[in-house]
Design goal:
It is a single chain. The protein is α/β, with parallel strands linked by helices. The protein is globular. Helix 5 runs parallel beside helix 6. It has a single domain, classed as 3-Layer(aba) Sandwich (Rossmann fold). The chain is built from 9 helices and 12 strands. The strands form 3 sheets. A 6-stranded mixed beta sheet has the order 6-9-10-3-11-12, with helices on both faces. Helices cover 37% and strands 29% of the residues. Strand 11 and strand 12 form a beta hairpin. The structure holds adenosine-5'-diphosphate and magnesium ion (MG) (2 copies). The site of adenosine-5'-diphosphate (ADP) has 11 residues, from helix 1. It comes from Pseudoroseicyclus aestuarii.
Length: 251
């Protein structure tokens, strides 16, 4: 699904190397977790994969289902099936959630050469998805994220993911203040969307999210590289002992 080879990235504005050779593969249908100390480059990796400005790739490759991601603009990456959640809970006053979702979905369909969905067809799809995810249809009418609570924003991201049907979902749990209810929401949504043709990269500082979203593999990132990979037990080891044991072992 996702293949990253020796990816090196620096800040555009500063002479600061952040990713120093990331090697990472995510298989079809796999849920992979990335953990690591603060500042190790986890969010930078997700930004670079989604095509955010401000970063310069100085080496390596990244491909999605064999397509070179680094060559595409952000919209092309999204149309190819990449989805980045939780980084941009942008508020869009005046734009109803439903209109926003339909516009986003149809833009992607158009880019893939698929027929756009009519308002009626879209409504059927989005209502069905909302129902499956236990999301109140009322949320579809509200302006995007405006006045949403933290939990509602997360719920909305899950709904976006369900509607857009991406192949590769990247979730960056930047919000260390995720409460238990929000965490359950996110994990129930992710678990409902787990599928043989869809992969997840779940980035988290803490093990607790991985109690709910049980990953197939856990990767530890430190100082701009993946330094160790293992099964779910690796996350438990981190929870118990912190990163210092793993880091000194790697050094
Ligand atoms: P993580 O998500 O693992 O906590 P980040 O990717 O956010 O790590 O950051 C990695 C490193 O890059 C940190 O040292 C951070 O300060 C630095 N960094 C990232 N983006 C910027 C930026 N736009 N300007 C300055 N430093 C940045
Ligand atoms: Mg951080
Ligand atoms: Mg981060």
């Amino acid at each position: 699904m996702l293949d990253i080879k020796d990816l090196k990235v620096k800040l555009e504005e500063e002479d600061k190397q952040i990713l120093k050779g990331v090697d990472l593969s995510v298989e079809d249908g796999q849920v992979a977790a990335i953990m690591g100390p603060n500042g190790s480059g986890k969010s930078t990796l997700s930004y670079v994969l989604s095509g955010r400005e401000g970063y310069e790739v100085t080496g390596g490759e990244a491909s999605l289902q064999g397509q070179d991601l680094l060559d595409m603009d952000p919209e092309e990456r999204a149309a190819a099936g990449l989805f980045l959640a939780f980084q941009y809970p942008v508020e869009i006053p005046g734009v109803g959630n439903q209109v926003f979702l339909r516009t986003a979905l149809n833009a992607q369909r158009k880019a893939r050469g698929e027929e756009e969905l009519s308002a009626t067809d879209f409504l059927r799809v989005v209502r069905e998805k909302a129902k499956t995810l236990n999301i109140d249809a009322e949320m579809l009418k509200r302006p995007v994220n405006v006045g949403f609570s933290g939990g509602e924003k997360k719920r909305n991201e899950i709904l976006q993911m369900a509607v857009l049907e991406p192949k590769m979902c990247i979730l960056d749990e930047t919000d260390s203040g995720l409460d238990v209810d929000a965490m359950k929401l996110v994990s129930q949504g992710v678990n409902a969307l787990r599928d043989a043709g869809r992969s997840f990269l779940v980035i988290t500082h803490y093990q607790r999210l991985l109690d709910h979203i049980v990953p197939d593999v856990v990767h530890i990132m430190a100082d701009g590289r993946i330094v160790k990979s293992g099964g779910p037990e690796l996350a438990l080891e981190v929870e118990k002992n912190g990163y210092s044991d793993i880091l000194s072992e790697v050094r």
